[in-house]
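Escalation from tier 1.

The customer reports that the assembly of two entities below gives different structure tokens on two consecutive runs. Tier 1 could not reproduce it. I'm attaching the input and our single run for tier 2 to review.
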Amino acid sequence: MKLKLTWLLTLIMVFSIQLSSAQVSTVSGKILDNSGLPLPGVTIIVNGTKRGVVSDFDGNYSLAAKTGDVLKMSFIGMKTQMINVGKSSTINVTMTEDLESLDAVVVTGYQNVERELFTGASQTIKAAEIKLDAVPDVTRSLEGRAAGVSVQNVTGTFGAAPRITIRGSSSILGDTKPIWVVDGAIQEEIVDISFQDLVAGDINSLLSSALAGLNANDIESFEILRDASASAQYGARALNGVVVITTKSGKRNQKPTFSYVSEYAVRAIPKYNQYNLLNSQETMSIYRQLASEQVGQITNTGVVNGRNGGVYNLLYNSLGPDEQGNFNVSNTPEGRARFLQQYELANTDWFKELFRSTPTQTHTMSFSGGGEKSTTYASVGYFTDAGWTIADRVRRLTGNLRNSYYFGENDKFKVTSQVVASIRNQKAPGTFNRESDQFFGSFNREFDVNPFNYGLTTSRAIRPRDNDGNLEFVRNNWAPFNILQETKNNSVELNVTDVRFQGQLDYKINDNLEYSFLGTARYANSISNHSSTEFSNVANAYRADGNTIIRDANTFLFQDPEFPNSSPRVVLPSGGILRNSRNTITTYTFRNSFEFKKRYNNDLHGLTVYGGQEYRHTDRSSAFNTGYGYQFSRGGTVFTDPDILRKAILEGDDYFGDQETRNREVTFFANTTYDYDKKYILNLSGNYEGSNRAGKSDGTRWLPTYTASGRWNIHKENFINNGGVINNLVFRGSYGLSALIANTASNNEAIFRNQVTDRGVISDRENAIDIEDLQNTELTWEKQTEYNLGLDIGLFGNRIAMNVDAYYRDGKDLIDFLTTSGIGGESIKLGNFSSLVTKGVEFQLNTVNITSDNFKWNSGFNVSLLNQEITELQQEPNVFDLITGGQFGNVVGFAPNSLFSFDFQGLDEDGFPTFELPEGGIDFQSTDDPLSYLKNEGPTLPTLTGGFANNFKYKNFDFSFFVSFSAGNKIRLDPSYSSDYSDLSVFPTEFVNRWLTPGDENITNIPVIPSTQLIQQRGVTDSRRTFNAYNYSTERIADGDFIRMKNITLGYSLDKDIVKKLGMNRFRLSLQTTNPFLIYSDDKLAGQDPEFIRSGGVSFPITTLYTFTLNVGF
Amino acid sequence: MNITMKNKNFIKLNIIMILLVFTSCDDILDESPDNRTEIDSLDKISELLVNAYPQALYAPFLEPMSDNADDKSFSADQTDLNDFMYDWRDFFDDDEDTPTNYWNEVYEAISQANQALASLDELGETNVNQRGEALLCRAYGHYMLVNVFAKAYDPSTASSNLGIPYVTAPETTLLPKYSRNTIKEVYDNIRADLVEGLKYLGNDLNYSEPKFHFTTKAANAFASRFYLTVGEWDNVIKHSNIALGSGSGVENIRDYENDYRLAGLSYSERSFRFTSSIEPANLLLIVAESLYDRSHFRLRYQLSGDLARDLFFRGNAAGLRWSEGVFGQDLFYNVPKYDEYFRTTNQAAGIGNAYVQAPVLTTDETMFNRAEAYAMQGKLQLAVDDLNTLLSVKSQDYTSDDALSIDNVNANFSIDPEFYSPFYDISADALPMINVILSTKRAVHYNEGLRWFDVKRHNIEVVHERDITPSVSETLVLSKGDNRRALQIPTEAQSRGIMPNIR
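Tier 1 run:
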């Protein structure tokens, strides 16, 4: 037995030796993606060890492993595979896409958190899925895509931001824009402007988009952090939500790929049949009425000496002899009629004259690659737009270089450096700032040359050229005006340089602890030159002194107050006006953070602790200088009459200036996540933020914010094990406090502002210091507590994925105006007095409808509903703010900036509009209980927004369309009515139905064209106010609801085999149309875009784009 | 082990770094967010005081309440302010030229003065001109408010009647509670500030634009007005003397005859000079946002033809024609005293703010004050001398033969003893003198708002006629002691807990 046993043992030993000699020592193979192409960059680890490699450019790998080992193969976006090593030393693997893990990581800008552990409400959007080709500003592509995010393209001009709000506006007076975070650092706008400034169409609005310098092709993804928990680390700045943008980067062990994308877009030219305006013939018939004796609004003297004049001004100027002494127009009724007939037939298509269809071009070349120890992404982009109109043009050059290096044992160190730069050159119509005239209730902008506005507000009976083809001039500000001439001689040239450097260090101290440092420096500089040359109407208005009537009326002439008896004279005898302005922003961000991550007790308990500190530093400066007498045609020599400076100084018009603002913010943050078996997750976050907004005062300098949130991954429970129908079922809940230190008030200590006294005589003036704001030791941050409940459902392997989030936001201590007793010395103060409640629901549904080898169809749908109500307020809004939905037009019980109207009560027996009015009549500045007679129309912010996307793929073709919709808000129709019209006025078609004779008030609501006699009788001021009130009445309101076909794309990709033979890895052609048509909008809008707010200046509407895109990769 | 040791050091290093950042970040956060300034020098306190003068007019609402207003009937321009004030109704709009605006602006000026005083204390500066100026500004502001928004001063009721809140420190919270002091408390405070402030004044060189500040003369002119209100005649004379200088003072008062009429000034040149810093009679000028220059001449309740005749065309006490020119016709009779300065905010659109500059303390008024005090003291010759000095430069072709004597006055200016009823008694001897002084003062200071203060001080009954229809008119009477002599506290202040005046 003994022997036998020995033998057996020997045998076993032999066998075992044999066995071990049969074990493989190296495993190698190729990894392919599901289309059969090699997949580089896949991480292969022998499970339970630290041995691992990454697949190379051709998808090949090789590592030491033995039979029985388990290889864990993982790649972002693919299903992680566990493969047992058998006898074969070659293991080829095909990785399959993991629908569930497509957005397996939530990028908060601070941390990358596994989605299954993320407790907040957030949405990841891949840039490629929503990109609007040839639209250079990425923010616009978010319209309708992200639940809870409202994007209104209130202006379509490049550089101007759309109005973006996340879950409504959270502040009443303060900022309502979300913050933009690019690669971890907050991206500030060059100028910080309010929504009202944004829609004013002033030059500054061209700098309002924080992301205008970012190339859309460089963006990888967006992460919308919606609730307080998701945005917790932004604590005191998160009140209005956070959008995190991640730009593209190279991947390790990636074959170098080079890609070129080229986009050509043609824009549609507006057409008059889109807008209901009268043609020249109909317009002339109204002019005839205006010129008739009964009406008398166009009169001989008025036309000859008036500030502005059109057809009749031309007529009266032609009645005299010309230079040769010939009378070209006979001053007989027939002669005059013959002259006017030319204009009657003109029917000028201003859009054709002023718009062009030159395509825009976007070119992006990018390189991406990575080795064992480094990755690179580099791109250069060029966008050029020769101009939609003759008055605008854009060129933008962007560059982006991002490198990462890995070194140290186990790649313990990772260093990333990034340089992003952009240079922008833009031409815009020359514009002066818009002013609101609260007395008459209107907005004014002099010398507006915005072509779109011009097309809609200029009579079609006026011609750009006369019968001989020469430019024909009408009169504007007592000087000759021709739009073609003026756009050439009155323009703004804007140059923006924007550079950002970023460095990041990640250091794995040990398996569980990692230290990160982030440093960013950004410098952006914008210089704008507004040139009004000596040939411009602007300069010529300063020289219009034709006769004493004009001299006395022309406000651009100078009346020397020291000689009270002298007559006004020209003080800009030569040259034009050059107004330079410069805006700069310098920002630094430094961040140190630690992340500790460990699982305990057989991975049952997980703990992540993240904490650190951040410093943000922002300096802005803005300067301007007005140069009078700059001779554009004489090499820029300066020829100034010193009296124009006296005029400017006397009138209190600073002709140069420079202002600075400085923000300093220090944050400490900590965030702890605990999970039990990844089923139950609890997260606590705290943030302690300090700011210099209040200067030296240390009262309320620091603010702590916090959130608590939890998540239950129900699908991991045993009871849910139902055969794979439900693959994801998650319940989330969060509660938290976020805040905003409003820049509207910073008077924790009294604010003293230097000024120079307003005294008529320069030698009487002296320096003064004004208490701009008294001290308010109770001033504090605007705060918001938020409750959020969320449910995520995934069925059939996420072929049907759904999210629902419901939230309740309670905004407290919001800053607003209040009227005091005045005794302290400030009758209107800012204080933390207001409250705002927002409730909302967001729903998303993504489905994979069909997926077969040749045909794929998936859809995405989202809809968000919100309801906002101001619950506390001290401010008393005036009528003008209520009817314009202005910044101060807030009322308890309504959403912020709700729109109110004069309640139209029909026309009276003179054809004048009547309204329900208080005793004393129309007073736009009145704060005396205006709600008792104004009618609430609704909010200006949509209460329902969403989108519906469908993507189809058939063989090599792909097709997609996207519909965005929005509803619940009201829109004010463009103001068209006035008590006095001129021979330049333009009229909407409903004018043909206007009140003409007594009795018409029973059949029409279109007011009369009043005679001058009637205006005198009823008072000039009262008449003007009455007609302006009509512009802001219940008659002039429309629903903002719309359904818009946002874009349609048809693409064709060449077969992979062919592409490969051509030496490429991608070749795709596509045609896209953006904003092709509105499926639904209120008929009353009659061509007015429901998103666009027309204000002239530099603002242009969004337009239909037809884009051809070529996308190749090597 | 080695590695973990390193880690520990690393963590330590970081903790130290973070602590360093933490301790230094309070310094970082001290950075001023914009170009605001700090009050850290005497010069800056002086600049604070530039704005310690009320930037508002009172004439637009006080003039129509006084007997200087009469109905020009329907063809003239009507504004709510002018209309309400004419029949002493409460008016609560807060636009420029209204009582509420005046209330707000005066308190704003007071807050600048209080800040200056607080800053002086912080800097440890006591005996400086700035302290004097600040105290004078505070006293002046409260004096004007109590005279507009409370009943006339009367020592017998001053401690029971409500004045206005007397504010002595900068406001530090959003909505502190204020309440009205009694009239006595307000006057005691004014007196204290005035007496204390006068001690520090004296360095007029301190001012770069002295006409816009409390120079010694201006401060004493204010003191003269204050003591006139409380009926302390010695003090009136004492302070008037300082303000007017030695001699007759004729070279310091407004010379309508030589500097205006005979100099051939046009309308706009007259109004320019009237409000100018070169006019020696102007002791203190203020600049207010106001539209009054555009309206005063055409308002309905203003200088009607009848009133123009009574006040001006019939000649003055010396029996001579006034040198002070009345311009315009019928609906537009007016004296050029306002000159608008338009500060544009948008040159192209011609939009901006309108300002007027107005003298609020003058040598003319001070001389009238002194004359009244002399009369009250029975020094009638001194009183009539002052009156003659005034008339000598305000009458056309005045010669010494035109001088009034006490007998003239007694003969021609006697009046019903009930007409003037201040809190003190006017002797029968002094009454005609008081009457001629106040009547002359009324014409000289026409449309400056000062008449209302005399109406109030002397408890003069005001009778206003008003057309209801072209053929029917009504008579409105503001009787003696009428509660409406105290303008109503603005509604905003009422709603913040300030007691309204009795109606």
